[in-house]
Write a structure and sequence with these properties.
The structure is a single chain. With 597 residues, this protein is α+β, with helices and mostly antiparallel strands. It has a domain at 1-79 and 261-369 and 412-424 and 466-597: Glutamine Phosphoribosylpyrophosphate, subunit 1, domain 1 (4-Layer Sandwich), CATH 3.60.20.40. Helices cover 35% and strands 15% of the residues. A seven-stranded antiparallel β-sheet has the order 1-20-19-15-14-11-10. The chain has a seven-stranded antiparallel β-sheet with strand order 9-4-3-13-12-2-21, covered by helices on one side. Helix 13 (286-295) packs across helix 14 and helix 13 crosses helix 16. The chain is globular, with a radius of gyration of 22 Å.
């Protein structure tokens, strides 16, 4: 009898795509049907989710991206995280009484990276023009897209806030002054006009040269009227943020015009014969690899899946790896990250030996290089270690802490090209829509520390360490998997469990997605106000009560949550010998779906 999964395993021999919204997935599929490759399809899906999931991401945010190129059998990282303003520094914060970078408003905004990330990816790895990949998003923005229940609930819950504090956002999402209903057609004409202006520039410059056309399209955004409108709006329209004050933006025209996405080497580790690739330490991605380095020293496949023994090892491994992330990770152009030592066999063995039968309540980063290694309980009590009572009584301002502003998408084509991308930031919940553009800026700069002695400390034109963390896996030179998830600090825990569900326990792609998950909150959050809960683990209630009790007996503070709440993994895979591609999407995000042919 076929085992039940919440969605079918989507299979095809010509191409498979998946994303956080079924209309974006359909757009990616249309691109492939029209001759595009996986990179073309991923770009189209990304611009569509910017429109369709504005409460999760936007064109003003970020999109760290991994690409496996079938042409040379190599994996590349595209640095889809923009830099901080050139005038934004620890000294500026001290002079202006900023003790922690807020999670909302303009102060945490970095240069939008989405457009140039896809311009670079298309030019180097794609086959289509910018106009071709923008066409589905323009069609949806102009012609309308049906409002889904998740976005409708968000708009309903935030109407008062938008009407009062973000009126430009209200103008876009409540055009008649009322909360729209599920199924109503939504439009974003301002965003459509931005995208159409890029297409017009491309046509003018690129009739004989695809690359020149793509460059002209991105220049409209970074060196033309879009950049000018961004700077004008954030300079002349101060907005209240979690500091309790109305602040202006610090991003300058030069900050925007001088930024470029770059193609970089990813970080990799071999796990049981599979090469796993992550973005460098301008994301938290290598923490996934650190966990694998420890876990490879256990016989996981001999354990019962999601038994207390197995989950205990996972949780303790995450604590150790994320402690290192907190101490050492940052933009490698600024921070000296001892990644070789952190991923070495000797270090992984040393860390594995630190895992006992009981839960550790200590903060235990390794001592392998520069970094502050204080005990977790010595963090700033107001900004980092937050009890439930303190969280309840403290006012975090207009934006508060939001951990869900992310989505994900993957694509694989018949040639074996593969893309994993994690769009995030630039969501409508924490910054107002820029008048005339139809999108807000992001708030990724909240992840910087204001201690100059720490890794990931704020510096001018530095990339904040993002939680956004796509994954690609190969077997030798052959592509195998691309996957990712929204979820802040949980991303490299949930995708780890998804990966192990397949590699260690033989699950198919959809069953691996559906399986219940656990999430450690032991270490400081990457998000304002950087709360940490030593020993706490959030467990989906589908994990049996007996297992939860056994974890408590080991010293874990177990918090049972809803049965389908943690992790919204999406992924694709390819069996190159059979010519078979597969895809799946999490039911935890109602609108996510995969399509194949």
């Amino acid at each position: 009898m076929t085992e039940f999964t919440t969605r079918p395993v989507i299979m095809g021999s010509r191409g498979v795509v998946t994303s956080g919204h079924y209309l974006a997935t359909a757009a990616g599929f249309r691109i492939m049907e029209n001759g595009g490759n996986a990179v073309d399809a991923a770009a189209a899906m990304s611009f569509c989710v910017n429109l369709l999931e504005p409460h999760m991401n936007g064109i003003g945010g970020e999109v760290p991206t991994l690409i496996y190129s079938a042409g040379d059998s190599k994996t590349y990282a595209v640095s889809g995280v923009g830099w901080s303003p050139g005038s934004f520094s620890i000294e500026w914060c001290q002079k202006n009484g900023i003790e922690a970078i807020p999670g909302d408003g303009y102060l945490p905004a970095c240069v939008p990276s989405v457009v140039d990330t896809w311009a670079v990816a298309l030019a180097r790895f794609g086959t289509m023009t910018m106009t071709q990949v923008l066409r589905p998003a323009i069609e949806l923005a102009e012609g309308g897209y049906p409002l889904d229940s998740e976005l409708q609930e968000f708009l309903s819950n935030n109407k008062s806030k938008f009407d009062t504090h973000y009126p430009t956002t209200a103008q876009v999402y409540y055009p008649d002054g009322k909360v729209p209903s599920v199924g109503d057609l939504m439009h974003n004409i301002e965003l459509a006009n931005v995208l159409k202006s890029m297409c017009a520039a491309e046509e003018k410059a690129g009739r004989m040269n695809r690359i020149a056309g793509i460059e002209a399209a991105r220049d409209v955004f970074y060196k033309g009227p879009v950049a000018e409108k961004i700077v004008e709006f954030i300079t002349n329209n101060p907005v209240e943020d979690a500091t309790g004050k109305a602040n202006r933006g610090l991003i300058s025209y030069e900050d925007i015009s001088e930024w470029h996405a770059t193609v970089e080497d990813p970080v990799t580790l071999n796990y049981r014969g599979l090469d796993v690739y992550k973005c460098p330490t301008w994301t938290q991605g290598p923490v996934f690899l650190q966990q694998l380095g420890i876990l490879e020293r256990f016989e996981l496949s001999s354990m019962e899946h999601n038994s207390s023994d197995y989950l205990h090892i996972l949780i303790e491994t995450s604590k150790l790896a994320f402690a290192d992330r907190e101490v050492y990770y940052g933009d490698p152009l600024f921070d000296e990250v001892p990644l070789g030592e952190l991923l070495s066999s000797d270090y992984s063995r040393e860390r594995k030996d630190m895992i006992g039968n009981k839960a550790s309540l200590d903060f235990r980063p390794g001592d392998v290089g520069k970094g502050i290694r204080e005990n977790i309980y010595n963090f700033d009590q107001n900004a980092v270690v937050m009890t439930d009572a303190k969280l309840a009584e403290k006012d975090f301002g207009l934006g508060g802490a939001h951990l869900g502003d992310t989505t994900h998408l993957d694509a694989v084509d018949r040639e074996g090209n593969m893309v994993a991308a994690t769009p995030s930031g630039g969501w409508i919940g924490t910054s107002p829509v820029i008048r005339g553009l139809g999108f807000p800026l992001g708030t990724r700069g909240q992840m910087f520390y204001l201690d100059p002695n720490r890794a990931n400390a704020l510096e001018p034109r530095k990339r904040p360490r993002a939680t956004l963390t796509p994954s690609i896996v190969t077997r030798g030179k052959d592509p195998l998997m691309a996957f990712g998830t929204p979820g802040g600090d949980g991303q490299d825990q949930w995708t780890l469990q998804y990966f192990l569900n397949q590699v260690e326990f033989g699950m198919n792609i959809q069953k691996a997605i559906d399986a219940p998950t656990v999430t450690s909150l032991h270490f400081p959050s990457s998000f304002y106000p950087r709360d940490a809960y030593p020993g706490r683990v959030v467990v989906e209630s589908r994990v049996p009560e007996a297992v939860r009790k056994e974890l408590e007996n080991r010293g874990h503070e177990v918090i049972a949550t809803g049965p389908w709440t943690n992790g919204k993994v999406m992924g694709v895979s390819i069996d190159t010998k059979r010519g078979l591609m597969s895809g799946g999407a999490s039911p935890r995000r109602h609108s996510g779906y995969a399509i194949g042919w």
